[in-house]
């Protein structure tokens, strides 16, 4: 039996402010820190003993993983970081308030930008200082690998090869692995593992800071998946994610 644990990073400062974040490097909020610590305590209580861990190049995911591993007395294990686990790039929306964008462009349009499988938000111009080509952590990437915007489809296309070539291979070697990443990069993995259709994936909401466990048999066939935590709390957190881009009530 192999066990993969996915953790969406704890609430970030821009999650708290309801802003599109994408590849912008934003740290955890106070609530996000608490969420990560609680996730670590839960995983330790459930008896997980990871040998390796994965995360993205972004601080909010790295910080979440550090807090989880600290609670589990596992700060010493190898951690593999990859830009392929970064959040979906939100183009020109990055830094903007989701509800205000819904007010300006309509909820339907913002929902398309947020959740459409194959329609990306407007791209950043090449000279925009927010463009990741100006960020030193991506200096070794090919220009074709550095996005100015992404749809979930593009995120899946960079995640799935990394799952196949790296994460799944170490999972088979070590038995248990934790991946701390982002809502859309994790949805890409979930889509692939559960064979979720392009039409259904927009309605999948992954809550912050809740361990999401996938169990595989000896042939790496998915047996079951489940969240660790109170179902009512998890449902409420999923609803929070789903409602982020709705217009504020008058």
Structural overview:
The protein has 250 residues and is an alpha/beta fold. 39% of the residues lie in helices and 12% in strands. The chain has eight helices and six strands; from the N terminus they run E-H-H-E-H-E-H-H-H-E-H-E-E-H. A six-stranded mixed beta sheet has the order 3-2-4-1-5-6. Strand 5 and strand 6 form a beta hairpin. Helix 2 crosses helix 3, helix 4 crosses helix 5 and helix 6 packs across helix 7.
Entry keywords:
alpha/beta, six-stranded mixed beta sheet, 8 helices, 39% helix
Task: Write the SSE topology.
Elements: E1 2-8, H1 13-16, H2 30-45, E2 52-55, H3 59-71, E3 79-81, H4 98-105, H5 107-115, H6 152-174, E4 176-181, H7 183-194, E5 212-216, E6 222-227, H8 231-242
Helix pairs in contact: 2-3, 4-5, 6-7
Category by helix and strand content: alpha/beta
Q: What's the story with the biggest beta sheet?
A: 6 strands, mixed
Distance between the termini: 52 Å
Q: Mean pLDDT, rounded to whole units?
A: 93
Pick out the low-confidence regions: none
Major sheet: arrangement of strands = 3-2-4-1-5-6
How large is the share of residues in beta strands? 5-15%
What Rg do the Cα atoms give? 17 Å
| Number of H- or I-type helical stretches | 8
Backbone shape:
globular
Please give the number of β-strands: 6
């Amino acid at each position: 039996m192999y066990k993969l644990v996915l953790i969406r990073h704890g609430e970030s400062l821009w999650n708290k402010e309801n802003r599109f974040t994408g590849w912008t490097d934003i740290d955890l909020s106070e609530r996000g820190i608490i969420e990560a610590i609680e996730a670590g305590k839960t995983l330790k209580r459930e008896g997980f003993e990871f040998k390796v861990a994965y995360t993205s190049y972004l601080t909010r995911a790295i910080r979440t993983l550090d807090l989880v591993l600290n609670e589990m007395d596992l700060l010493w294990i190898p951690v593999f970081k990859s830009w392929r686990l970064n959040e979906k790039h939100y183009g020109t929306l990055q830094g903007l308030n989701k509800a205000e964008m819904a007010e300006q462009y309509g909820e339907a349009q913002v929902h398309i930008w947020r959740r459409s499988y194959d329609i990306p938000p407007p791209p950043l111009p090449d000279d925009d200082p927010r463009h990741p080509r100006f960020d030193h952590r991506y200096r070794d990437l090919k220009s074709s690998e550095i996005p100015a915007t992404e749809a979930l489809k593009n995120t899946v296309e960079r995640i799935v090869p990394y799952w196949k070539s790296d994460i799944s291979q170490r999972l088979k070697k070590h038995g248990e692995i934790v991946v701390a990443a982002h809502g859309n990069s994790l949805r890409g993995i979930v889509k692939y593992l559960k064979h979720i259709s392009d039409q259904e994936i927009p309605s999948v909401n992954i809550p912050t800071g809740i361990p999401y466990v996938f169990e595989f048999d000896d042939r790496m066939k998915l047996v079951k998946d489940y969240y660790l935590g109170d179902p009512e709390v998890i449902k409420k957190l999923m609803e929070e994610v789903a409602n982020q881009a709705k217009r504020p009530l008058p």
